[in-house]
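Sanity check

After download, print the first record. It should look like this:
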Amino acid sequence: MTDGVTVVGGGLAGSEAAFQLAERGHQVVLAEMRPARGTAAHQTDRLAELVCSNTFKSTEVTNAHGLLKAEMRALGCLILEGADAARVPAGSALAVDRDQFSAFVDARVRAHPRIRVVTEEVTALPAPGIVATGPLTSEALAETIRARLGGESLAFYDAIAPILSAESIDETIAFRAARWDKETMAEAAEEGGAYLNCPMDQGEYEAFIDALTTADQFTAHAFDAVPYFEGCMPVEEMARRGRDTLRFGPMKPVGLRDPRTGKRPWAVVQLRREDRAGRMWNLVGFQTRLRIPEQQRVIRMIPGLANAEFLRFGSIHRNSYLNAPRYLAPHLALRDAPTTMFAGQLTGVEGYTESTATGLLAAINLDRQLRGAPPVVPPPTTMLGALYRYLREADPAHFQPMNANFGLLEELADPPRDKAVKRERYADRGLRDLEAWRQAEGITPRQP
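Expected structure tokens:
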């Protein structure tokens, strides 16, 4: 359909955008600087490598992330197809085997006859094209963006949780269960539970908080000058907000009972399966910037983890994002060059699903513009449209990254008081309005 478009960045958003454009008939060059130039977080040379977590969060449409995924499926999302193919047990969450997931997406993208993947660090903005370089955008390209926009991009620092070996977890102490029985009965019976839980009594919790808040951590002057995004707050930073912050956050014991006592623990450290074989377990909510010896010392204080073997230590790396409401058009393009577009976390969305969704919509809109049609955005009654509205209408002076959440949606005309019923109505309306929008705009979804 065109002489060619360029997608810069081979993460989730870039891989999705490149594949969607190729499926719509465009010749695509997908530029990824790895492995010629690495990043602080990536470990492989594959496209769509997951670096922070292995979960795309909930699949339930009455959850904001589940609703967004349902909308993306209706538009023919490749990344979710790959996530389904690599799924591991995690209750109602869509968790994946990292290696199988990236291998699936990498193979599908590289095998497409209209996609040419090049290993190259791009330092100029493509036209036409999509920049989806993510939170670890190279300094050279970031400088090009800043020079073009005439302002400074914002930055924050994102922390990664440790991963432990299953063999090193003492299952005479750690027990298998999910909060509020979110895993299915089949998963519990066949897989032995999607989550492991390390229970603490009050004394153990207090000692753990003391150790966590006084442990040595990686520090740098720039870290303290930039705010963390709330969804990726390091566990030691959360603990410093108050002694009960973790007990009412990632260590909340609600919905869990220790089979040894039959009682609810004072606090629980929960681990989530990282791979299908159940050999690797991620400490849920335990992103950290503690130094490696301190991670070993503090985490081995957790009951059941005294002999923990670390397959990956927690770490911290630089994340960058644009002030979208100040600098970008409503469809996340340069205001003076509508076919130079942005997607992924660089736009100010936070999370795998959200990043992928912007790559999907960016491809749809670039295709439309190259065919002579105007760009479009779903209505704010849909989760995808509500995210884009936030990126368009948020206060530029206080702009920070945003996850999908029901607070972004257009309010119901007659909202019920019952929260569960309200979410059901949000979901019904969102999927109905997305389908109506898709048909009205003549958008044909890619078929798996």
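If your output differs, re-run the checksum step. Summary of this record's structure: The domain at 5-153+322-441 is CATH 3.50.50.60 (FAD/NAD(P)-binding domain).
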